[in-house]
């Protein structure tokens, strides 16, 4: 059977749909928290006299998930390399979805005092723990089923879950903002996106329970027993690839969280831009990210995923130097162009990761290696970024935020150049 025929087979379409739907659900869950953190979690869950301090506290709770993600990568990677990709992906989806649903029922600080932010952070930890095993498994589900010459295009399919989940999450917040008064939204409207996550999780489970195990994992079982401790084997024999993969993925997180969570909070609080207007701008701008992801997948199959990532990180360095002037301009048109360019570049530092990271590791420890590298990069490039950017903007101006992005992207560039033979 030809590659094109294989790529269009019903079973392959189902596998790609399972990969896409799953990551869309996971990113929807993750993004509604990031949006709520930028808009309402500060005054609802954290006591403070200053709105900027409340926003910093809300961003700090956002970062809790990034601490949990490597732990989730370890646990889910362990079972993904021992019992298979399918069962592990189902478990990660249920944990992430259950944690998100529970946030809808949390009491606020006014009602429960300090118990409210503590419970919020515990559930945020559950979200991050589940996502720690999600992305790696979804990427392997796609790439390990890819026919020859299609790894880049198959690998970018789960990456498209990021813009799909973003549009669903922020689109819902936009609709609620239009239908509800600010008082209604603050009182109970913010809970609706968390409640609706149960519908999306059910859809994801329905699709994933119908898939089969990947050929690569089946081949591992035919060769002998899987590793008893995948993390030990990974760190003993593949620590250089793990370290390089971690730093190679930093840029995508830094670009994304600056152009979405930080930009939303800064625009609505510091610049005074209407929330509905800015959410609308971001929803349109995120389409440029989807285009970038799709183009990067095609380019990865032609010139190699590693090379596409190198070009993308160079563009991200330049973007870091241009994003600050765009946000400071005060012009909605200029800000929109800056966001669109940043998210388009994001597509080229994120889209190829689905093909590039799995290529760094053998199938025996691939789930663990991919998940650990991706989620450690999430801590370094994403978990600290909104807090650091908010502090830098408050005390030194947006130029320091741009330099922060340029430095983060430079770290990825160095790692990618060191591993360029793997691309």
Structure in words:
The chain is an all-alpha fold and 423 residues long. It has one domain (10-422): Growth Hormone, Chain: A. The chain has 21 helices and no strands. Helix 6 (115-143) crosses helix 19 and helix 16 (305-328) runs antiparallel to helix 21. The longest helix is centred in the first third of the chain and has 36 residues, at 10-45. It is globular.
Keywords:
single chain; 423 residues; mainly alpha; Growth Hormone, Chain: A; 21 helices; globular; disordered N terminus
Compile the SSE list and pairings.
Elements: H1 3-7, H2 10-45, H3 51-82, H4 85-103, H5 109-112, H6 115-143, H7 151-156, H8 161-179, H9 182-189, H10 191-208, H11 215-223, H12 230-237, H13 239-248, H14 250-269, H15 275-303, H16 305-328, H17 332-350, H18 353-356, H19 366-383, H20 385-396, H21 398-418
Transmembrane segments: 30-48, 55-77, 89-109, 160-181, 187-207, 241-265, 277-296, 308-327, 333-357, 369-392, 398-419
Pfam families: Sugar_tr (PF00083)
Protein name: Metabolite-proton symporter
**How far apart lie the N and C ends?**
27 Å
Indicate the proportion of strand residues: under 5%
Q: What number of structural domains do the residues give?
A: 1
In the CATH scheme, the class would be Mainly Alpha
Structural class: mainly alpha
User: In this structure, how is the largest beta sheet organized?
Assistant: none
According to CATH, the fold-level topology is Growth Hormone, Chain: A
SSE string, helices as H and strands as E: HHHHHHHHHHHHHHHHHHHHH
> Would you identify the CATH H-level superfamily?
MFS general substrate transporter like domains
Helix content: over 70%
- Describe the global form: globular
Number of helices: 21
Output the radius of gyration.
Answer: 20 Å
What CATH architecture do you see?
Up-down Bundle
> Which residue ranges are poorly predicted, with pLDDT under 50 across at least 5 consecutive positions?
1-10
Number of strands: 0
If you average the pLDDT, what whole number results? 87
